[in-house]
Design goal:
alpha/beta; Rossmann fold; two-stranded antiparallel ribbon
Length: 189
């Protein structure tokens, strides 16, 4: 099993890209870190991720994360996440230092933070305005203390039609050999 991270600022398009990538990988499972984080632990969820997801998958077992409901502010019942040759982990912090040793590769959604946050605010509407007012400073602190972009193998830029995938700061060439032996990144998106 290979874990692939998809990281970037909130609102940068991580979920959409991960969905497209999963489709290109014959339905690879996707773990959304929004299901692991919660209001009280925006970035302090690493232990929960290891216990509920990484350890079971490493043993070849189905993981059972308990997804968080951001509206009711409660964790829900466990949801199965089956082991697979490739499992995608998407969300802000997917490339954090504690996870990098477990990742076979890391994508970074290459969109400036202000643009990403504007998209996220528009997506979430007025109901989540107070949340965003607290989220942005928390995200700034997170990436200042534990940046992901310098460790990305590939940078992803959304275009009118699809995505442009470029070598990242930590990339070695343009092929995404950590995903598949036969296809480069442009074949998957």
């Amino acid at each position: 099993m290979r874990l692939i991270g998809v990281d970037g600022h909130a609102g940068s398009g991580k979920s959409t890209f991960a969905g497209r990538l999963a489709d290109g990988l014959d339905g690879a499972p996707v773990l959304h870190l929004d299901d692991i984080a919660c209001h009280d632990e925006l970035f302090d969820w690493t232990a929960r991720l290891f216990a509920q997801v990484i350890e079971p998958l490493r043993r070849g077992e189905t993981a059972h994360p308990t997804p968080y409901d951001w509206r009711t502010r409660r964790f829900g019942p466990p949801r199965p996440l089956p082991p697979a040759p490739v499992v995608l982990v998407e969300g802000v912090g997917a490339g954090r230092s504690a996870l990098r040793p477990h990742l076979a590769g890391l994508f970074w959604m290459d969109l400036p933070p202000e643009q990403a946050w504007a998209r996220g605010r528009a997506r979430d509407g007025a109901e989540q305005r107070a949340f965003w007012d607290g989220w942005i400073p928390a995200e700034r602190r997170h990436f200042a203390e534990d940046p992901s972009r310098p460790f990305a193998h590939l940078l992803v830029r959304q275009r009118e039609q699809g995505y442009e995938v470029l070598p990242g700061p930590a990339g070695k060439g343009t092929g995404a050999h950590f995903l598949t032996q036969r296809d480069g990144p442009s074949a998957m998106c």
